[in-house]
Specification:
209 residues, alpha/beta, 6-stranded mixed sheet, Metallo-beta-lactamase, Chain A
Length: 209
Amino acid sequence: MKWEQIPLGRVQTNCYCLSIDSKCIIIDPGAEGEKLAQILQEKGLRPIAILLTHGHFDHIGAVDFLREKYSIPVYIHKKERDWLSNSSLNASTFFFPDEPMQIKPADFEISGAGKLTIDEFSFTIFETPGHSPGSVSYYVEAVQFIVSGDALFYGGIGRTDLPGGNQQQLLSTIKETLFALPEETIVLPGHGPKTTIAREKQSNPFLRA
């Protein structure tokens, strides 16, 4: 499985395209659906699903465009089933009050940690709450990377001052769940550059013992 990081939108949220041959899965298409579709076309990729790490506006903005264009399903954790259509919960009203965001309901709800297989793609799902109550991370053990959403960043952690945020829960999530992964695991965050579990254990200022 190959991966590509594609920053999109006004806050440059990282969308990830995970591909096997000509098929791909899109994680967190935050904005600029037409631009993303053009990139996929140029690469000869056909999306088969959209996975969401959580329901904040900057991670969901292109969901409806892409699912309608490609007739593909959308997955989100059940705790955030209402966030797609609720502009207060997805925080679009907070950041852009003149542009409240309302997305159609997801096709599938993630009910907890476990395995997820879509066609040839196989993931381990970890519940990683704290930034938001239904945040999840998608781990691919075979190639040792994890898409962490807004839980863990290069040298940082997700903000916890939005609805449902809890800093202590986030710190516990990272230390108990993400830091249990092999240190060479590549972390693909929702914003900024990639990192590794080893680097964040050693130098993340928010997570030093």
